[in-house]
From TrEMBL:
GO terms for molecular function: ATP binding; sequence-specific DNA binding. Keywords: ATP-binding, DNA-binding, Nucleotide-binding, Transcription, Transcription regulation. It comes from Parashewanella curva. PANTHER family: PTS-DEPENDENT DIHYDROXYACETONE KINASE OPERON REGULATORY PROTEIN-RELATED, TRANSCRIPTIONAL REGULATORY PROTEIN. It comes from the Bacteria. This is Sigma-54-dependent Fis family transcriptional regulator.
Length: 331
Protein backbone atom coordinates (compact mmCIF):
# COMPACT_ATOMS: atom_id res chain seq x y z
CA UNK A 1 0.00 0.00 0.00
CA UNK A 2 1.52 3.31 -1.05
CA UNK A 3 0.08 6.14 1.01
CA UNK A 4 0.22 9.48 -0.76
CA UNK A 5 -0.27 8.05 -4.23
CA UNK A 6 -3.26 10.34 -4.72
CA UNK A 7 -1.67 13.37 -3.04
CA UNK A 8 2.00 14.28 -2.76
CA UNK A 9 3.21 11.27 -4.75
CA UNK A 10 0.59 11.58 -7.47
CA UNK A 11 2.99 13.01 -10.06
CA UNK A 12 5.56 10.34 -9.27
CA UNK A 13 2.95 7.58 -9.53
CA UNK A 14 1.92 8.84 -12.95
CA UNK A 15 5.55 8.71 -14.10
CA UNK A 16 5.89 5.22 -12.64
CA UNK A 17 2.91 4.05 -14.64
CA UNK A 18 4.84 4.94 -17.78
CA UNK A 19 8.15 3.43 -16.79
CA UNK A 20 7.02 0.33 -14.88
CA UNK A 21 5.96 -1.55 -17.99
CA UNK A 22 9.29 -0.93 -19.74
CA UNK A 23 12.63 -2.52 -18.93
CA UNK A 24 14.23 0.87 -18.26
CA UNK A 25 16.68 1.32 -15.44
CA UNK A 26 15.22 3.49 -12.68
CA UNK A 27 17.19 5.55 -10.19
CA UNK A 28 15.31 6.36 -6.99
CA UNK A 29 16.66 9.28 -4.99
CA UNK A 30 15.54 10.32 -1.55
CA UNK A 31 16.53 10.63 2.06
CA UNK A 32 16.57 7.57 4.26
CA UNK A 33 13.10 6.22 5.06
CA UNK A 34 11.28 8.09 2.29
CA UNK A 35 10.02 4.84 0.73
CA UNK A 36 12.59 4.03 -1.96
CA UNK A 37 12.19 0.29 -1.50
CA UNK A 38 8.40 0.61 -1.47
CA UNK A 39 8.60 2.35 -4.85
CA UNK A 40 11.07 -0.20 -6.26
CA UNK A 41 8.75 -3.06 -5.31
CA UNK A 42 5.80 -1.22 -6.83
CA UNK A 43 7.66 -0.84 -10.14
CA UNK A 44 8.43 -4.55 -10.15
CA UNK A 45 4.84 -5.49 -9.32
CA UNK A 46 3.51 -3.31 -12.13
CA UNK A 47 5.94 -4.78 -14.65
CA UNK A 48 5.69 -7.86 -16.82
CA UNK A 49 8.39 -9.33 -14.53
CA UNK A 50 6.04 -9.49 -11.53
CA UNK A 51 6.03 -13.31 -11.45
CA UNK A 52 9.83 -13.38 -11.51
CA UNK A 53 12.16 -12.67 -8.60
CA UNK A 54 12.62 -9.26 -7.01
CA UNK A 55 16.03 -9.26 -5.36
CA UNK A 56 17.13 -6.46 -3.04
CA UNK A 57 20.82 -5.98 -2.39
CA UNK A 58 22.07 -3.48 0.16
CA UNK A 59 25.32 -2.46 -1.52
CA UNK A 60 26.50 -0.76 1.67
CA UNK A 61 26.30 -3.97 3.66
CA UNK A 62 28.69 -6.07 1.56
CA UNK A 63 32.45 -5.84 2.01
CA UNK A 64 34.45 -4.73 -1.04
CA UNK A 65 36.27 -8.13 -1.10
CA UNK A 66 33.01 -10.03 -1.42
CA UNK A 67 31.02 -7.72 -3.65
CA UNK A 68 32.07 -9.31 -6.95
CA UNK A 69 31.23 -12.77 -5.75
CA UNK A 70 27.91 -11.57 -4.28
CA UNK A 71 26.84 -9.73 -7.43
CA UNK A 72 28.26 -11.97 -10.13
CA UNK A 73 28.83 -15.32 -8.39
CA UNK A 74 31.98 -17.44 -8.35
CA UNK A 75 33.36 -20.80 -9.41
CA UNK A 76 34.50 -23.40 -6.92
CA UNK A 77 38.08 -22.75 -5.80
CA UNK A 78 38.30 -19.27 -7.37
CA UNK A 79 39.46 -17.83 -4.03
CA UNK A 80 40.08 -19.05 -0.50
CA UNK A 81 36.73 -19.90 0.97
CA UNK A 82 35.03 -20.52 -2.39
CA UNK A 83 34.26 -24.13 -1.52
CA UNK A 84 31.46 -24.47 -4.04
CA UNK A 85 30.11 -22.76 -7.12
CA UNK A 86 27.81 -19.82 -6.37
CA UNK A 87 25.29 -17.90 -8.46
CA UNK A 88 25.42 -14.18 -7.74
CA UNK A 89 22.53 -11.76 -7.28
CA UNK A 90 22.39 -10.96 -10.98
CA UNK A 91 21.89 -14.60 -11.91
CA UNK A 92 19.35 -15.07 -9.13
CA UNK A 93 17.37 -12.09 -10.41
CA UNK A 94 17.44 -13.41 -13.99
CA UNK A 95 14.11 -12.62 -15.65
CA UNK A 96 13.18 -10.32 -12.78
CA UNK A 97 14.34 -7.15 -11.05
CA UNK A 98 17.52 -6.42 -9.11
CA UNK A 99 17.13 -3.57 -6.61
CA UNK A 100 20.54 -2.11 -5.81
CA UNK A 101 19.92 -0.17 -2.61
CA UNK A 102 22.59 2.32 -1.46
CA UNK A 103 24.28 2.03 -4.85
CA UNK A 104 26.65 4.92 -4.03
CA UNK A 105 28.37 2.64 -1.50
CA UNK A 106 29.80 0.39 -4.23
CA UNK A 107 33.56 0.60 -4.70
CA UNK A 108 34.79 2.17 -7.94
CA UNK A 109 35.98 -1.24 -9.12
CA UNK A 110 32.56 -2.78 -8.54
CA UNK A 111 30.96 0.18 -10.34
CA UNK A 112 33.01 -0.63 -13.48
CA UNK A 113 31.79 -4.22 -13.44
CA UNK A 114 28.22 -3.22 -12.74
CA UNK A 115 28.22 -0.86 -15.71
CA UNK A 116 29.52 -3.64 -17.92
CA UNK A 117 26.77 -6.05 -16.92
CA UNK A 118 24.05 -3.44 -17.36
CA UNK A 119 25.36 -2.47 -20.78
CA UNK A 120 26.16 -5.89 -22.15
CA UNK A 121 23.56 -8.01 -20.39
CA UNK A 122 26.14 -10.66 -19.62
CA UNK A 123 28.56 -11.43 -16.82
CA UNK A 124 31.44 -13.65 -15.86
CA UNK A 125 31.51 -15.37 -12.51
CA UNK A 126 34.65 -14.77 -10.45
CA UNK A 127 37.17 -17.38 -11.60
CA UNK A 128 35.44 -18.09 -14.90
CA UNK A 129 35.99 -16.94 -18.49
CA UNK A 130 32.55 -18.00 -19.59
CA UNK A 131 30.07 -15.23 -20.43
CA UNK A 132 26.62 -15.85 -18.95
CA UNK A 133 23.66 -13.96 -20.43
CA UNK A 134 21.30 -12.40 -17.91
CA UNK A 135 18.03 -10.56 -18.38
CA UNK A 136 17.75 -8.31 -15.37
CA UNK A 137 16.01 -5.02 -14.84
CA UNK A 138 18.06 -2.82 -12.55
CA UNK A 139 16.52 -0.36 -10.11
CA UNK A 140 19.07 1.57 -8.07
CA UNK A 141 18.56 3.83 -5.07
CA UNK A 142 20.60 6.14 -2.92
CA UNK A 143 20.16 8.81 -0.27
CA UNK A 144 23.35 10.49 -1.49
CA UNK A 145 23.71 13.34 -3.93
CA UNK A 146 25.21 11.44 -6.86
CA UNK A 147 26.26 14.55 -8.75
CA UNK A 148 28.34 15.49 -5.73
CA UNK A 149 29.70 11.94 -5.47
CA UNK A 150 30.80 12.18 -9.12
CA UNK A 151 32.43 15.53 -8.44
CA UNK A 152 34.42 14.01 -5.59
CA UNK A 153 35.33 11.03 -7.83
CA UNK A 154 33.56 8.58 -5.56
CA UNK A 155 31.00 7.63 -8.20
CA UNK A 156 31.64 7.00 -11.88
CA UNK A 157 30.01 9.46 -14.20
CA UNK A 158 29.40 6.83 -16.91
CA UNK A 159 27.53 4.64 -14.43
CA UNK A 160 25.49 7.63 -13.28
CA UNK A 161 24.48 8.35 -16.88
CA UNK A 162 23.54 4.71 -17.36
CA UNK A 163 21.50 4.51 -14.14
CA UNK A 164 19.95 7.94 -14.48
CA UNK A 165 17.73 6.99 -17.43
CA UNK A 166 14.62 7.54 -15.36
CA UNK A 167 15.24 9.36 -12.07
CA UNK A 168 12.57 9.44 -9.38
CA UNK A 169 12.97 12.03 -6.62
CA UNK A 170 11.13 11.08 -3.45
CA UNK A 171 10.47 14.17 -1.33
CA UNK A 172 11.25 14.06 2.40
CA UNK A 173 8.25 13.75 4.73
CA UNK A 174 8.64 17.33 5.97
CA UNK A 175 7.79 18.45 2.43
CA UNK A 176 4.62 16.34 2.26
CA UNK A 177 2.93 17.17 5.51
CA UNK A 178 -0.49 16.55 3.94
CA UNK A 179 0.29 12.81 4.01
CA UNK A 180 1.00 12.66 7.73
CA UNK A 181 -2.66 12.13 8.54
CA UNK A 182 -3.17 9.16 6.17
CA UNK A 183 0.22 7.64 7.04
CA UNK A 184 -0.46 7.91 10.78
CA UNK A 185 -3.89 6.31 10.38
CA UNK A 186 -2.37 3.53 8.31
CA UNK A 187 0.46 2.87 10.76
CA UNK A 188 -1.93 3.07 13.73
CA UNK A 189 -4.12 0.41 12.13
CA UNK A 190 -1.22 -1.90 11.29
CA UNK A 191 0.36 -1.38 14.74
CA UNK A 192 -2.94 -2.27 16.43
CA UNK A 193 -3.17 -5.46 14.43
CA UNK A 194 0.45 -6.47 15.07
CA UNK A 195 0.17 -5.68 18.78
CA UNK A 196 -3.33 -7.16 19.09
CA UNK A 197 -4.69 -3.92 20.52
CA UNK A 198 -7.89 -2.04 19.66
CA UNK A 199 -7.36 0.47 16.84
CA UNK A 200 -6.83 4.03 18.08
CA UNK A 201 -6.81 6.69 15.40
CA UNK A 202 -4.85 9.94 15.75
CA UNK A 203 -6.91 13.00 16.61
CA UNK A 204 -6.83 16.18 14.52
CA UNK A 205 -4.80 17.87 17.24
CA UNK A 206 -2.27 15.03 17.23
CA UNK A 207 -1.94 15.25 13.45
CA UNK A 208 -1.17 18.95 13.77
CA UNK A 209 1.40 18.14 16.43
CA UNK A 210 3.02 15.52 14.19
CA UNK A 211 3.10 18.00 11.32
CA UNK A 212 5.33 20.27 13.39
CA UNK A 213 8.06 17.64 13.68
CA UNK A 214 10.85 17.71 11.08
CA UNK A 215 11.07 13.90 10.55
CA UNK A 216 14.76 13.39 9.69
CA UNK A 217 14.04 9.64 9.51
CA UNK A 218 11.02 10.32 7.27
CA UNK A 219 8.21 7.75 6.91
CA UNK A 220 10.15 5.07 8.78
CA UNK A 221 10.54 7.39 11.76
CA UNK A 222 6.82 8.23 11.73
CA UNK A 223 6.00 4.53 11.59
CA UNK A 224 8.15 3.92 14.69
CA UNK A 225 6.62 6.82 16.60
CA UNK A 226 3.07 5.68 15.87
CA UNK A 227 3.87 2.12 16.89
CA UNK A 228 5.41 3.39 20.13
CA UNK A 229 2.38 5.63 20.67
CA UNK A 230 0.10 2.62 20.30
CA UNK A 231 2.12 0.65 22.88
CA UNK A 232 2.22 3.55 25.34
CA UNK A 233 -1.50 4.23 24.87
CA UNK A 234 -2.33 0.59 25.71
CA UNK A 235 -5.20 0.40 23.25
CA UNK A 236 -7.00 3.37 24.79
CA UNK A 237 -5.40 6.15 22.78
CA UNK A 238 -2.33 6.98 20.75
CA UNK A 239 0.16 8.48 23.22
CA UNK A 240 1.87 10.53 20.54
CA UNK A 241 3.42 13.24 22.70
CA UNK A 242 5.03 10.62 24.92
CA UNK A 243 6.20 8.62 21.92
CA UNK A 244 7.92 11.64 20.41
CA UNK A 245 9.25 12.68 23.78
CA UNK A 246 10.89 9.32 24.39
CA UNK A 247 12.54 9.51 20.99
CA UNK A 248 13.88 13.01 21.39
CA UNK A 249 14.87 13.12 24.99
CA UNK A 250 17.43 11.34 27.07
CA UNK A 251 15.90 7.87 27.49
CA UNK A 252 17.41 7.65 31.01
CA UNK A 253 14.71 10.03 32.21
CA UNK A 254 12.32 7.10 32.41
CA UNK A 255 14.78 4.36 33.31
CA UNK A 256 15.83 5.07 36.90
CA UNK A 257 12.38 4.07 38.16
CA UNK A 258 12.41 0.50 39.35
CA UNK A 259 8.77 0.14 38.33
CA UNK A 260 7.74 -1.46 35.06
CA UNK A 261 7.75 0.42 31.77
CA UNK A 262 3.95 0.44 31.65
CA UNK A 263 3.73 1.91 35.15
CA UNK A 264 6.00 4.70 34.04
CA UNK A 265 3.66 5.83 31.31
CA UNK A 266 1.77 8.25 33.55
CA UNK A 267 5.05 9.76 34.66
CA UNK A 268 6.32 10.01 31.11
CA UNK A 269 3.14 11.71 30.01
CA UNK A 270 3.51 14.16 32.85
CA UNK A 271 7.11 14.85 31.82
CA UNK A 272 6.02 15.11 28.20
CA UNK A 273 4.37 18.44 28.93
CA UNK A 274 7.88 19.79 29.64
CA UNK A 275 9.26 18.38 26.40
CA UNK A 276 8.10 21.18 24.16
CA UNK A 277 11.25 23.22 24.61
CA UNK A 278 13.36 20.31 23.32
CA UNK A 279 11.01 19.98 20.39
CA UNK A 280 11.35 23.68 19.55
CA UNK A 281 15.14 23.48 19.81
CA UNK A 282 15.26 20.45 17.49
CA UNK A 283 13.02 22.10 14.92
CA UNK A 284 15.01 25.32 15.03
CA UNK A 285 18.32 23.49 14.56
CA UNK A 286 16.83 21.47 11.70
CA UNK A 287 15.60 24.65 10.06
CA UNK A 288 19.05 26.24 10.30
CA UNK A 289 20.69 23.09 8.90
CA UNK A 290 18.29 23.07 5.97
CA UNK A 291 19.02 26.72 5.24
CA UNK A 292 22.75 26.04 5.38
CA UNK A 293 22.47 22.84 3.31
CA UNK A 294 23.79 20.77 6.19
CA UNK A 295 26.88 22.93 6.84
CA UNK A 296 27.56 23.42 10.53
CA UNK A 297 30.57 25.75 10.33
CA UNK A 298 31.64 28.70 8.21
CA UNK A 299 30.11 32.04 7.23
CA UNK A 300 26.98 30.35 5.82
CA UNK A 301 26.88 27.55 8.36
CA UNK A 302 24.03 26.73 10.73
CA UNK A 303 26.03 27.72 13.83
CA UNK A 304 26.41 31.24 12.46
CA UNK A 305 22.66 31.45 11.75
CA UNK A 306 21.88 30.29 15.27
CA UNK A 307 24.47 32.59 16.81
CA UNK A 308 26.29 29.82 18.66
CA UNK A 309 29.69 28.13 18.48
CA UNK A 310 30.01 25.28 15.93
CA UNK A 311 31.19 23.00 18.75
CA UNK A 312 28.08 23.85 20.80
CA UNK A 313 25.90 23.11 17.79
CA UNK A 314 27.69 19.81 17.18
CA UNK A 315 27.09 18.72 20.74
CA UNK A 316 23.39 19.62 20.41
CA UNK A 317 23.18 17.68 17.14
CA UNK A 318 24.64 14.68 18.96
CA UNK A 319 22.47 15.15 22.00
CA UNK A 320 19.22 15.31 20.05
CA UNK A 321 20.25 12.70 17.47
CA UNK A 322 19.69 15.16 14.63
CA UNK A 323 20.75 14.13 11.13
CA UNK A 324 22.75 17.09 9.79
CA UNK A 325 22.71 15.81 6.18
CA UNK A 326 20.94 18.12 3.71
CA UNK A 327 18.22 16.94 1.32
CA UNK A 328 20.02 14.64 -1.06
CA UNK A 329 18.60 15.03 -4.47
CA UNK A 330 20.49 14.98 -7.73
CA UNK A 331 21.26 18.61 -8.32
N1 LIG B 1 4.23 5.96 0.89
C1 LIG B 1 4.29 5.01 1.83
N2 LIG B 1 3.17 4.37 2.21
C2 LIG B 1 3.21 3.42 3.18
N3 LIG B 1 4.32 3.04 3.82
C3 LIG B 1 5.48 3.64 3.47
C4 LIG B 1 5.51 4.64 2.46
N4 LIG B 1 6.79 5.07 2.32
C5 LIG B 1 7.51 4.37 3.20
N5 LIG B 1 6.74 3.50 3.89
C6 LIG B 1 7.19 2.59 4.97
O1 LIG B 1 8.26 3.24 5.63
C7 LIG B 1 9.34 2.33 5.89
C8 LIG B 1 10.60 2.81 5.16
O2 LIG B 1 10.40 2.69 3.75
P1 LIG B 1 11.57 2.17 2.77
O3 LIG B 1 12.34 1.04 3.40
O4 LIG B 1 10.96 1.93 1.44
O5 LIG B 1 12.47 3.47 2.76
P2 LIG B 1 13.88 3.69 2.05
O6 LIG B 1 13.86 5.05 1.46
O7 LIG B 1 14.15 2.53 1.12
O8 LIG B 1 14.86 3.65 3.28
P3 LIG B 1 16.48 3.45 3.27
O9 LIG B 1 17.05 4.60 2.50
O10 LIG B 1 16.83 3.53 4.71
O11 LIG B 1 16.75 2.11 2.64
C9 LIG B 1 8.85 0.97 5.41
O12 LIG B 1 8.32 0.27 6.51
C10 LIG B 1 7.77 1.29 4.41
O13 LIG B 1 6.81 0.27 4.35
Amino acid sequence: MIIGSQTSLKGIMQQLELVSTTDSTVLILGETGTGKEVIARHIHQQSSRQQQPFIRVNCGAISSELIDSELFGHEKGSFTGATSQKRGWFEQADGGTLFLDEVAELSLAAQVRLLRVIQEGSLRRVGSEQEIKVDVRVIAATHKNLAEEVQHKRFREDLLFRLNVFPVNLPPLRQRLEDISALSEYFATTAASVLSLPICRPTQQQIQYLQQHSWPGNVRELQGVIERAAILGRGQKLAIESALFIKNSDIRLIEPEETSFAENIGEVQHQASFAKLDEVIIQHINQALRKSYGRVEGPFGAAKLLGINPSTLRSKIRKYGINPAPATNLR
